[in-house]
Amino acid sequence: KNGKSFYHSLSELANSAQLRDLFAYLSKEEEKHMNKFEDILESSGGYQISELYYATDYMGYMKAIADEIVFRRDISITELAKSVRSIPEAIGKAIGFEKDTILFLYEMLEILDNKNDKETIKKLINEEKEHIRKLSALNN
């Protein structure tokens, strides 16, 4: 949801058709990813990890990545997008978001048991890499 909101806000603020189109495209991509995450959640029986499971170092690490990087709730994504002052800054923030998401997805591969879910995550990783390539092309 954060990625979708961030890119949607950037598309509304963009001052060129090329940027507006790219950020609108990335917003739609993030919505697709959100739906895939919901499918994974459903196939795994819901998000029910016990406190004991969270007590492990690894799950603490995963929770930190999710809470502090990818799925932050303490910031307004719209305000973050509005604070961007230049095209290079917008692209830099977007690339950073994509990199953080890739890190999280790679780590998800470690905890998923379902082969289909793992394949879905691998596809998402490749899509996120493609997003970085598209964003990087704007800087060149």
Can you characterise this structure?
With 140 residues, the protein is mostly helical. It has 7 helices and no strands. It is globular and about 45 Å long. The two termini are 29 Å apart. Mean pLDDT is 78; it is low at 47-53.
- The arrangement of helices and strands along the chain is HHHHHHH
Number of helices: 7
Shape: globular
* Rg (C-alpha, Å): 16 Å
Low-confidence regions: 47-53
Relative helix content: over 70%
Strand-residue proportion: under 5%
Count the beta strands.
0
> How far apart are the termini?
29 Å
Oligomer: single chain
Class from helix and strand fractions: mainly alpha
Q: How would you characterize the largest beta sheet? A: none
Average pLDDT, rounded to a whole number, is: 78
Secondary-structure blueprint:
Blueprint: H1 2-13, H2 17-43, H3 51-54, H4 57-70, H5 77-82, H6 87-111, H7 115-139
Helix pairs in contact: 1-2, 2-7, 4-6, 6-7
